[in-house]
Design goal:
This protein has helices at 9-18, 54-68, 85-95, 108-119, 137-149, 154-157, 172-182, 204-213, 233-236, 263-266, 308-324, 326-346, 371-382, 405-417; strands at residues 40-41, 102-105, 128-132, 158-161, 186-192, 217-221, 240-244, 257-261, 364-367, 384-385, 387-389, 393-396. By secondary structure, it is α/β, with parallel strands linked by helices. The longest helix has 21 residues, at 326-346. Helix 2 (54-68) packs antiparallel against helix 11 and helix 7 packs parallel to helix 8 (204-213). The strands form 3 sheets. The protein has a 7-stranded mixed beta sheet, sandwiched between helices. The protein contains 14 helices and 12 strands. It binds pyridoxal-5'-phosphate. Pyridoxal-5'-phosphate is lined by residues 107-109, 136, 138-139, 192, 196, 221, 223-224, 244.
Length: 422
């Protein structure tokens, strides 16, 4: 029989003493309702919270602009021309990549398109794009528009893999089985590493291997995986990936996206690519030559000069991941999510996220009646921040950098109070 969890507030406090977060490094929003001054913020899978270092460091970059004007491109503490390189190594460490496989630029869907320009190359019978039926809408729209761009019918080109009838999440073996059966018709597999709706963490290495064995290109949308679960994109042989920085990476609304291109592709002269003046070797940038000389790195996928004031928050945030370490963070994440799961089980909630810790990140999704109404009441009456996803899912994300056991306890007891367990 599963252990019966101690539902007392004192126990939540005791766990926080024993297994503290790094919450002091973050601004926690004030609560609107309830007994506690701070929000119990369980929406970091939607928008992470600001690190306290972000504002002063961003102000320092703004101050450099005021002081240096155009000279800031080449002088000052963090000159702008090579600024993006400050993000490369920490981003590479975060996703298990080599530095020349990584670049931070643009936003996520834009990058998925730029990567598909290179990696979605339908030919003959091999035209299909495989996504999850529960793919985030932006990915669905992006792949359908790519199919149309190639003159293909999106309804037959895009294959949406669904969970089995009566099940909520995809099974890796079903994805692998599809690729074994139909792989010769698949040009591209583009899946979410952690699904936005269910919180399921797919078996990225197994699916990547199966897709590549079938002759397809395998790319990953890691919006919900980066900064959430340990990744080893290089070792897993992933062809390409992209992620945003505003969820678990706490870099602010609409923050820049990271890109991974496996090193076997970075100097392939046959790959089509959209280019601009930032796609060429830095030393040739001001030669104003008619033809680019792309570096053998993910930097070649850059097009425009980067937005420095958007890069600053990503740089500050990535430092936190270097300080804490993804393994340490993941270990706390597993303990914290496990505790929330026990509390939710105790109040009789319906959890759709997989129960195995290695099949999920820091998110539990619940099936509820009126998700939007519940989210409002949780906030207004209890100061608990959760979110709702169409049509009937309530998402709770115990992001381990700043969420406390007490926050989880507040969420579960608020849900119980609202008649959850009745
Ligand atoms: C899985 C996933 N893909 C794509 C997007 C869209 O990201 P963007 O608006 O940054 O392009 C999101 C946004 O939340 C997402 O969760």
């Amino acid at each position: 029989m599963a252990d019966v969890v101690d539902m007392t507030e004192a126990e939540a406090r005791r766990r926080d003493e024993a297994d503290p977060s790094w919450r002091d490094w973050f601004h926690i929003p004030p609560a609107e309702g309830g007994r506690y001054p701070e929000a119990a913020y369980l929406a970091g899978n939607s928008l992470g919270l600001p690190p306290k270092d972000t504002q002063p460091e961003l102000l320092a970059d703004l101050e450099a602009w005021a002081r240096l004007g155009v000279a800031g491109h080449t002088t000052g503490e963090r000159p702008w021309l090579p600024y993006h390189r400050l993000l490369t190594e920490p981003a590479a460490r975060l996703v298990g990549a080599l530095p020349h496989e990584t670049v931070v630029m643009n936003s996520l869907t834009v990058n998925l398109h730029l990567l598909m320009v290179s990696f979605y190359r339908p030919a003959g019978e091999r035209t299909r794009i495989v996504i999850e039926d529960h793919a985030f809408s932006s990915d669905s729209y992006a792949v359908r528009s790519q199919a149309r761009f190639h003159g293909l019918d999106p309804d037959t080109t895009v294959v949406r893999l669904a969970p089995r009838p009566g099940e909520d999440v995809l099974r890796t073996e079903d994805v692998v089985d599809y690729l074994r059966r139909e792989g010769s018709r698949v040009a591209l597999v583009l899946l979410g590493g952690v699904n936005y709706l269910t919180g399921e963490l797919l078996d990225i290495p197994a699916i990547t291997a199966a897709g590549r064995a079938a002759g397809a290109v395998v790319g990953w949308d890691l919006a919900h995986a980066a900064g959430n679960v340990p990744l080893r994109l290089h070792d897993w042989g992933v062809d390409f990936a992209a992620w945003c920085s505003y969820k678990y990476l706490n870099s602010g609304p609409g923050a820049l996206s990271g890109v991974f291109v496996h090193e076997r592709h970075v100097d392939d002269p046959h790959l089509p690519r959209f280019e601009g003046w930032w796609s060429t070797e830095p030393e040739t940038r001001f030669e104003m030559a008619p033809v680019s000389r792309p570096p053998a790195s993910a930097d070649a996928w850059q097009i425009s000069n980067p937005p420095i004031f958007s890069m600053g928050p990503v740089r500050t945030s990535l430092r936190i991941f270097d300080k804490v370490g993804m393994e340490t963070l993941r270990a706390r994440s597993i303990r914290l999510t496990g505790y929330l799961e026990q509390l939710l089980d105790a109040i009789g909630a319906t959890i759709v996220t997989p129960r195995e810790p290695d099949r999920r990140g820091a998110q539990l999704s619940l099936r509820v009646q009126d998700a939007n109404g519940l989210v409002q009441r949780l906030w207004q009456e209890y100061g608990v921040v959760a979110d709702a996803r169409h049509p009937d899912i309530l998402r709770l994300a115990p992001a381990p950098l700043y969420v406390s056991y007490h926050d989880c306890w507040r969420a579960a007891t608020a849900l119980a109070d609202l008649g959850w367990g009745a």
